[in-house]
Amino acid sequence: MNKEEVKTEIHKIVDRLPDEVSDEVLIYLKGVLDKSAHHVKLTTNLAKILNEDQELLKRLAQ
Q1: What pLDDT sits at residue 7?
Q2: pTM of the model
Q3: Domain boundaries defined on the chain
């Protein structure tokens, strides 16, 4: 997707957000502005790993 397509998709999603989470999303997006692209990518990858390997992490924690 090009930059304009991504922005359009983001707008579509934001328009559908429940009011209860809109503030949280705004805070998150503002926080992303203060971080480097590398830091955002690392954070995203870590979140993906944690979500995918949740059961493994639970076993390791025991």
Answers
A1: 93
A2: 0.58
A3: 3-61
Q: Which long-range contacts (CB under 8 A, 24 or more apart) does 29-33 make?
A: none
> Hey, how many other C-beta atoms are within 10 angstroms of the C-beta on 43?
13
**CA atoms of 27 and 30, how far apart (whole Å):** 5
Instruction: For residues 46 and 40, give the distance between their C-alpha atoms in angstroms, rounded to a whole number.
Output: 10
- The answer to whether 57 and 50 are in contact (CB under 8 A) is yes
3-state SS assignment for residue 1:
coil
**Cβ within 8 Å of residue 32, ≥6 positions away:** 40
Per-residue pLDDT of the chain (62 residues; tens, 9 = 90+): 899 999 999 999 999 999 889 999 999 889 888 899 899 899 888 888 888 888 877 888 88
- Host H or E run for residue 32: helix 19-33
